[in-house]
Amino acid sequence: MSEKPHARGMMPRRRLLLRAAAVAATVALTAACSGFPGVDLFGGNTPSAPAPPPAQPATVGAGQMKVGLILPLTASGNAGLAAQSMKNAAEMALAEFSNPNIQLLIKDDAGTAQGAQQAVQDALNEGAEVILGPLFAHTVSAAGASARSRGVPVIAFSNDANVAARGVYLLSFLPESDVDRVVEYAIANGKRSFAALIPDNAYGTVVEAEFKQVIARKGGRVVALERYPADKAQMQEPIRRVAEAARQADTVFVPDGADAVPALVQGLAASGVTAKRVQLIGTGLWDDPRIFADGALQGGWFAAPDSAGYRNFSNRYRARFGQDPLRTATLAYDAVSLVAALVKTNGPQRLSDEVLTNASGFSGVDGIFRFRPDGTNQRGLAVQRVTATGGQVVSAPPRAFDGSGT
Question: pLDDT digits over 263-305, tens only?
């Protein structure tokens, strides 16, 4: 897995604000960053038998440029729910953008590689000049192969960096960005010796690799690292080993969500490793009310987008659709807004690789982001402190990238 980020600014023609010009408020995502429903990398992902298909409009908008939007609309469970929320957000982006010159061709891939390949072919045959989606890593691979054979770029929503490539750009929350941000902040604030308890799953594998890289790059030291299984009864031995080694550490990294972190931290505390003695740090999976309610985690640091933008987006979504969006909805909103803005300002080169990988980047609901030439992304994330009332920003996200592309 390679490193990924997101960004803002825009190109020589300056300041492409990803949102519609009509949307006055700044939007940035709060978020569980790395673990929204339906993403292969974090489980709960592969859709089972499709649900009966709801009525879906084939097209939205009347602009000249056609844009394929590929989502698992008829997949069951979280995948289908996420897809519907993303479809709503895409339509909202069109409604909020001032005179968008695009038309969405909405296609259902049912969450399968074969479905994604067919959906992309259908969209291309109807004249699509860019593909937005799909959501899963295995569907992105199929979609990317079809689209790039026709010279059409893909802006996909999987957070598995393995499927990124030049021309297949991931507009998603990549766990590597969370790890880099929180570890770099810790080291900048005097932390040097790290212990880690990491889940024994695909997410943990990605996080472990990036954790080791950033620690080495920044001159820190890993004094202990243990992987633990999902079964809480089998967590005790890894916890014990980390707690013993953590006597030599000033920071303990626990990159998991609220289903596991409280039990892990409780086990550490039973061995004397508490937030009073070491600094606890985590990823965007900590952005969860259950984490904030846990007294043992108070004062812990985690990396996530600032929540102001997502709250603004969520309020508008709720007013339009009468329900709350799922976290993935902002990805579809930003993707549609980005394409609409590029079409408006960039002429014939509007969707070239050079335009999409502009080092200054773009600004969206979830803050600044940019695509890297390898298809991964970089996001401007905040570092937040766990408090009983939610995440408190202790290091604000950058307002712009430095333009270097690094």
Answer: 999 999 999 999 999 999 999 999 999 999 999 999 999 999 9
Split at pLDDT 50, 70, 90, the class of 5 is: very low
The answer to whether 282 touches 359, Cβ cutoff 8 Å, is no
H and E: helices and strands count for the chain: 11, 16
Burial class (CB in 10 A: 0-12, 13-18, 19+), 98: exposed
Distance CA 61, CA 354 (A): 27
What's the token pair of residue 31? 């978020």
DSSP 346: S
Q: What is the pLDDT of residue 179?
A: 98
**Tokens 């026709």 appear where?**
150
What count of other Cβ atoms lies within 10 Å of the Cβ of residue 105?
A: 24
| 113, 143 Cβ separation under 8 angstroms | no
* Cβ neighbour number for residue 352 with a 10 Å cutoff: 12
Q: Which helix (H) or strand (E) holds 378?
A: strand 377-379
Cα separation, 394 vs 376, in Å, equals 26
Do the bridges between strand 128-132 and strand 65-71 make them parallel or antiparallel, or are there none, so unpaired?
parallel
DSSP string, 266-330: HHHHHTT--TTTSEEEE-GGG-SHHHHT-GGGTT-EEEE--SHHHHHHHHHHHHHHSSPPPTTHH
Structure pTM?
A: 0.84
